[in-house]
Amino acid sequence: MRVSLAQVDATLGDLDANVERAHGALAVAAQRSSDLIVFPELHLSGYSIGEVDADLSVRPDDPRIEKLARQAGSAGVLFGFVESGPRGPHTYNSAAFYQDGRLVHVHRKLYLPAYAPFQERNHFTPGPGLEAFSVGADTRTAVLICNDAWQPQLAFLAVQDGAKVLLVPAASAQSRFPEHYDSHEYWHDITHFYGRMFQVFVVFVNRVGVEGSLHFWGGSHVIDPWGNVIANAVQDEEQLLTVDVDLAEVRRRRHQVPLVKEARLGLLQREIHRLLEAGGDL
User: Fold this and answer.
1) Catalytic residue at 249?
2) Beta carbons of 119 and 147 less than 8 angstroms apart
3) Annotated catalytic residue: which of 51, 67, 131, 146?
4) Active-site residue 164, yes or no?
5) Topology of the domain comprising 2-247
6) Those residues with Cβ within 8 angstroms of residue 274's Cβ, 6 or more apart along the chain or in another chain
7) CB count, 10 Å around CB of 134?
8) Contact 60/69 with Cβ under 8 angstroms?
9) 238 is catalytic
10) CA atoms of 38 and 121, how far apart (whole Å)
11) Sorting pLDDT into bands at 50, 70 and 90, what band is 90?
12) What is the pTM of this model?
């Protein structure tokens, strides 16, 4: 599978300008015969939606997004956007996957940060669940949007649902003000761990650019099932990074070190039920 990581900037609040930027990236990906193109979190709206008076939410069948999906042709493509929920007043931080120009899957971000400088819980509703989905005939993948990947149980569930590839669109930023951690170092620790312990390919696609106090640093990369970096984008610059991945490596790795099949889901179910009965988080 040939994968292109569209490490792009975004213009806050300008959907049309961001769609045009995506058109440009898709054109280059087509020239490279990419099978899968992944864009960052909220790249069609910009990240800091609370600073914009306009309603930036759209549906997955918005004509502009569908036109982008058709441009990708037979390739699969993942877009990040503000989604107007299918019913009720809810708005989601979503990523939609299209193949052959058709909507295949929508993932709605499950774990929304509610700490400075990220205040997503003020603007979005948490998604209802996580499910892997098929890409092509024999590959399953799953999406973890940014902060979702900081919850290892989600990657575990995705792999148990058959995912061989984890797609991680992100809007990871360093604040211009002092922080208590280095997000670049954190992300490399997370993606290396998932690749090695869950024996999957991890495709981390971060945006670049500046919004207010937020500096999005890029650094998109791909990790193989051994936990090795096989492709790494530059920091602080737009780049379409393209890499070939051999999905058979997942099966070979899991045969050599059979970690994934030892999940013992029944054991976990019993222990989770016990914790819930004891008053755990519902």
Assistant:
1) no
2) no
3) 146
4) no
5) Nitrilase/N-carbamoyl-D-aminoacid amidohydrolase (3.60.110)
6) none
7) 14
8) no
9) no
10) 24
11) very high
12) 0.96
